[in-house]
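Table S2 (text version). Query chain:
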Amino acid sequence: MASRTGLTDAVRAFRVDDVAAALDETPELLGARNERGRNWLHLCAMTKAPDAAGTAGSIAMADLLLARGLGLDEPAFTEGAWKATSLWHAIAFGRNLALAEHLLKLGCDANHCLFAAAWNRDVPAIELLARYGAAIDQPGEGGTALLGAVGWSRFECAEALLRHGACVDAQDENGRTALHLMLRKGSDKAHFERLIAYGPRGDIPDKDGRTAAAIMHRKRDPDFRRMAGRLARG
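Corresponding structure-token output:
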């Protein structure tokens, strides 16, 4: 009789024939989940493929598991409206864009993954998700993916999100915009220049009533005062 441990090893190694044989021998293993609620498809998606053969194996493994009845968008766990789908596992852990695109072509939900892509500094993943219709401003913990990217200083990802229509004036739970976050962090002036090119407003107050334009005007640096003058007003 096939074991859960043996099946785990076979899935992570993308040994498709071994997994098929194990599930034929012990069908009840298909419904197994680990302590985080992950099923075999999640495990496959989160395993990094070592090379092109591994990438092809991951796709074949996903197809086998889907054919056996595992759900394309079934989450391992949820946090509010957010779902840890197989696509999220492929983006967040597997860093396997070939498998991610394969799942997207099969019709999986493109959402829930932008924060993970931004955290990983994975601009190609952001481009892929946007191409398949991910909601660029879908809220998550602390705001939108743009605010996450700025807060983590993933400015290349912030710019990718802005190129795909992210709201430059999105606010977090404290009313702070991307400009507020950058001022608070002391981000390099070059990043302000790039953000300002997308036309942010400078007159949006945070929960304490402070606007980005006012903070910039108070700085002694003439470059910040000049940039403050370029900020849009509502």
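Notes on Table S2: Residues 52-67 form the longest helix (16 residues). The two ends are 68 Å apart (CA to CA).
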